[in-house]
Design goal:
Helix content: over 70%
Radius of gyration: 22 Å
Number of helices: 14
Order of helices and strands: HHHHHHHHHHHHHH
Number of strands: 0
Number of domains: 2
Shape: globular
Strand content: under 5%
Mean pLDDT: 84
Low-confidence stretches: none
Largest sheet: none
Structural class: mainly alpha
Distance between the termini: 13 Å
Length: 427
């Protein structure tokens, strides 16, 4: 399959999944209200947090080692599955013990904690199986499975809410069933193809953990910055506030989703480039991203309130204020998503994960100080300030290391922007 077609196929698949996820969010918001939306967002955040902790950098090392160890792929795959199984047992056991004995996540009843404990392994293994598809160059199947899962999630959500008038817990159970179907298909496919066997290589496992460690720290801290605010809002307030904030975030991230397309198309371009060539591509993509974000932010500033109330209903009018506070953060988040691609293809220097460790700690401190008194507005302010700091630091390092003049990004002509756009096309 031609590489450019693979890129376009993956891009449109990711776009479809995001659109379908947004439809699910709108259905939940309009029919279950802020409280139902908040409960689902809270549970999903806990599952995603467990998954992020449980990856141990294997998203990077799985693809790398399956490509590198072609003669021992079945050993690599089996080692990954065995390690992930151990992680599931350890994390699920620890979470259940914390819930039962220490009263952590005490606001989750028995059914909800069971949903979390079951959804986590399905999500973790789905991620590993997706890595397998990519490593084995089964791009069509990778996109088909992901897209089919998203379509099934929309159908299940619509049936539960519109036909059976179910609540938030019923929706969570429906999504759990979808996760199980995806898990069963993935495991069945790889067992049938004899990729996964019952073999474990301890030395190989050690190498994989070491390789993925920097990516693990970087991605975990980035996730904490992006999603830990949900947990703090729930701790200091309630599901209603979580629901309002989740809508504000989703509305603000729509423009980031559009611009992140540039970042998605950029990464394949950098795969075989020298550091100098990578810097050239990143600089020109930054230029497109910056100007496009300024246009989108201006449009969104005038239409955002109307959009939130029209799409999510008037019950989410309180989400408008945090939405506007988040908009500057989306600008810097978009610049971060492009600049970080340069460091990813040049070996992920140590200062990148260290920066995320520092700024995630700053974000947690800001959340603790701002959310109790300012509520969802405080969470939005903490996020925007953190995005600004992270993007500012990484842009400074990019400009310094590559010797890129700042004016090359911030000042340009219309003709240069058109040439930059052509550069990104996957041809």
């Amino acid at each position: 399959m031609k590489f450019s077609f693979q890129v376009l196929l993956t891009f449109f698949s990711r776009l479809l999944i995001r659109v379908l996820s947004f439809i699910i969010s709108v259905l939940i918001a309009r029919f279950l209200g802020p409280v139902g939306k908040g409960l689902i967002s809270y549970v999903n955040t806990i599952v995603a947090l467990l998954n992020q902790f449980g990856t141990f950098g294997f998203s990077a090392s799985t693809i790398y080692f399956l490509a590198k160890e072609k003669e021992r792929r079945h050993i690599v795959a089996s080692t990954i599955i065995a390690f992930s199984s151990g992680v599931v047992l350890l994390f699920d056991g620890a979470l259940f013990a914390a819930w039962w004995f220490l009263n952590i996540f005490h606001d989750l009843n028995t059914l909800l904690i069971l949903i979390v404990l079951l959804r986590f392994p399905f999500m973790l293994f789905a991620q590993r199986m997706s890595d397998f598809y990519l490593a084995y160059q089964k791009i069509k199947l990778y996109n088909a499975v992901s897209s089919a899962s998203a379509v099934l999630s929309v159908i299940v959500t619509a049936v539960i809410i519109l036909l059976f008038h179910g609540g938030a817990v019923h929706v969570l159970l429906g999504h759990l069933a979808v996760s199980f179907v995806q898990f069963a298909f993935n495991i069945g496919f790889w067992l049938y193809n004899r990729v996964v066997r019952f073999v474990v290589d301890k030395m190989l496992l050690s190498e994989m953990v070491k390789y993925g460690l920097k990516f693990y720290v970087n991605n975990l801290c980035a996730f904490m910055v992006l999603r830990s605010d949900i947990l703090f809002i729930k701790h200091y307030h309630d599901n209603w506030h979580v629901g309002q904030y989740s809508v504000a975030v989703q509305a603000a991230e729509l423009i980031y989703m559009v611009v992140s397309t540039a970042s998605l198309l950029l990464f394949p371009k950098l795969a075989d480039k020298s550091p100098q060539e990578a810097a050239y591509y990143v600089r020109r993509t930054l230029r497109i991203t910056l100007h496009l974000m300024l246009i989108l932010l201006t449009v969104w500033a005038f239409t955002g309130r109307i959009f939130i109330i029209a799409v999510f209903s008037s019950r989410f009018a309180p989400a408008v204020s945090p939405f506007y506070i988040l908009l500057p953060g989306m600008f810097f988040l978009a610049l971060w998503s492009v600049s970080t691609r340069y460091f990813a293809v040049t070996g992920m220097p140590l200062f990148v994960p260290m920066a995320w460790v520092i700024f995630s700690a700053v974000n947690i401190i800001l959340n603790i100080f701002l959310i109790p008194s300012l509520g969802v507005a405080g969470a939005a302010a903490a996020s925007s300030l953190t995005y600004m700091c992270v993007a500012g630091f990484l842009l400074y390092k990019f400009f310094t290391i590559t010797g890129t003049p700042v004016k090359k990004v911030f000042y340009t002509s219309w003709e240069e922007l058109k040439e930059d756009a052509k550069l990104l096309l996957p041809v």
